[in-house]
Design a protein that fits this description.
binds zinc ion; three-stranded mixed beta sheet; disordered N terminus; mainly alpha; 246 residues
Length: 246
């Protein structure tokens, strides 16, 4: 007959596991932070490199965007120029493809890739792409959660033995932020896929330039993967912290 572990041993084993999980999460957070910085650096250097490669058709980012929208039967979305670098985004509420100054004016591979990617979101909006709908529906809750979840978790940790529910409310809020970062992944990958397919089929880019655009968009997508992993590691860390304090 096998010996059953005593209650004390079980508690020790559970605490030990939580401690190990907590430490692992710490290491994970640091490793993911370093990977994130490297990916950001690579993204910037790849975009800088391909901003010097002119697109063969000579179209600026703004012209590329307008053409891709029209080719997809979209006529109610306007293309606007906004300040900053890498500030490009599609706004589904205002129906605008917002391009940063460089992307709007330049006729480079980088500008074409970014402009087409943002139009990829406009196409998703038009066809009712399900992950985009889900992502948009999460925005109001995530806006609140991302602002106050840390505060709720810290207060929850201080009073965890008298009122444990508050800590878990904080965890649920942070889990919402994590869920958002996961739902963002198919939205971003799909927008880039649509962008690259159109850049090639429309001959806006040649084969060599399309490969460069693919590389640049690949690095942009990597930043979203890192962000999702980072929020998962943080979530595990907070759960470990709460479990060890009880
Ligand atoms: Zn995007």
């Amino acid at each position: 007959m096998r010996n059953h572990p005593s209650g004390k041993f079980l508690i020790f084993a559970v605490c030990n596991q939580i401690f190990i999980a907590m430490n692992t999460s710490w290491i994970l957070i640091i490793v993911i932070g370093i990977v994130g910085m490297l990916v950001q650096w690579k993204l910037k250097s790849v975009f800088a490199k391909y901003s010097k490669v002119l697109s063969p058709g000579g179209l600026t980012g703004a012209q590329i965007a307008q053409k891709m929208l029209n080719d997809n039967g979209i006529y109610d979305v306007s293309v606007t120029c906004i300040k900053g670098q890498l500030t490009d985004h599609y706004d589904p509420t205002k129906k605008t493809v917002n391009l940063s100054e460089d992307v709007y004016r330049m006729n480079s591979v980088s500008a074409a890739a970014v402009a087409a990617h943002e139009c990829g979101h406009a196409v998703q909006h038009k066809v009712g792409y399900a992950p985009l709908k889900l992502r948009s529906s999460l925005v109001p809750a995530v806006n609140i959660s991302s602002k106050i979840s840390m505060f709720v978790i810290i207060i929850g940790l201080l009073i965890i033995n008298t009122f444990p529910a508050l800590f878990w409310i904080g965890i649920a809020m942070f889990a919402m932020v994590f869920l958002f970062s996961v739902v963002t992944l198919p939205v971003e990958f799909n927008a880039s896929r649509r962008a690259l397919a159109w850049l090639q089929s429309s001959n806006a880019l040649g084969q060599a330039e399309a490969a460069q655009a693919k590389e640049a968009l690949g690095w942009a997508a990597s930043t979203y993967v890192v962000a999702a992993l980072s929020s998962l590691a943080s979530l595990l860390y907070y759960i470990g912290l709460g479990s060890s304090r009880r």
